[in-house]
Amino acid sequence: MLPLSDLQSAQPDIHARAMRKYQNRMGAPQRPLPELGCVWADCVMLSPVHPEALRAARLENGLGWPETGHRFLAFDAARFDARADRMCIWLYSDTAKPTSPPDYSVAMTDVVPYSSERLETLGHVSAGARSYMAEMAQLGTPPLMFVGIPHVLHRGSIPLAWSRTITV
Predict the structure, then answer these.
(1) Into how many domains does the chain fold?
(2) Is residue 96 part of a domain?
(3) Per-residue H/E/C for 127-138
(4) Which of 11, 67, 80, 145 is least buried, going by the fewest C-beta atoms within 10 A?
């Protein structure tokens, strides 16, 4: 898996598709990540929350899920222990809508060092994420999939051989 910054030259078509999700927040990929000495676009982002928990939370909040499911890559967290120096966790504790456009030039404040043990405490859909889903359902607006869900950020590429595909 390549970070967004490497996709631009390696796979321009995939990069263009990936950038569509940032169309209303183009500064987000350039947000500084001082913990890793890079920007967000230099990282592969993973989630400690199993997709089945995301699916259940979305359905509980009146949001749809494709009958055929979504495909995800699953990784064994222990594989990353030796790479902890190039990883951190964004807890994503603030799901409130900003009153003005967010300032992507500043680093997030709820970033903690990576450890596989810490992931065990983050494997659920938070109350903030559930509240966001409920609000989007009430507005009839499709929510972003991972708002309020912690992100594991890995600076650089990750071998695909470390993953398996699951459909939820």
Answers:
(1) 1
(2) yes
(3) HHHHHHHHHHHH
(4) 67
